[in-house]
Specification:
two-stranded antiparallel sheet, 38% helix, alpha/beta, six-stranded mixed sheet, 6 helices, 157 residues, Rossmann fold
């Protein structure tokens, strides 16, 4: 396996982004959703891309645990992406908090792909929180295809 895109998604945003990213990468690329699959042997991967989304203010615990537990193996060509609804400084802070500093500094590409609120996949409590905190009443997507394409171009170098 040449490239592995490892991600976890809560309501589907990171999965959409991982699929779009896969479409923009050349060569053999495999997707691994931690919610549906167990990790594979990372030794067989030349490139590893890791992504997740901000849910309740933080990236999913599975992604954090994966990064911390595989720091030595992740000295390969890596990319890191985050899905979140914020932009600018807040998004950068969420990115910095999501991944270990040594991975961010080593990464070939980093990206913030935007995010979405998918009310169809949220429970009542999640919808209520989003409506109060984010002042959003309906599903909305702010996924940036441009950010995904730029990320893929950096990974090809």
């Amino acid at each position: 396996m040449k490239t592995l895109i490892v991600y976890t998604t809560t309501h589907g945003c990171a999965e959409k982004c991982a699929n779009k990213l896969q479409q923009n990468l050349s060569g053999e690329t495999e997707l691994l959703n931690f919610k549906k699959s167990k990790p594979v042997n990372l030794e067989n991967c030349e490139t590893i891309i890791i992504g997740g989304s901000i849910h309740a203010g933080q990236i999913q615990k599975r992604i954090k645990k994966f990064c911390q537990g595989n720091l030595d193996i992740l000295k390969k060509k890596i990319g890191l992406f985050l899905c979140c609804m914020y932009e600018g400084e807040i998004a950068q802070k969420q990115f910095q908090d999501a991944f270990p500093t040594e991975l961010i500094e080593h990464a070939t590409a980093t990206g913030i792909f935007g995010g979405e609120f998918n009310f169809e996949k949220m429970n009542f409590i999640e919808k209520t929180i989003v409506k109060k905190v984010a002042k959003v009443e309906n599903s909305v997507s702010r996924i940036s295809d441009e950010a995904i394409i730029q990320f893929a171009q950096k990974m090809k170098v």
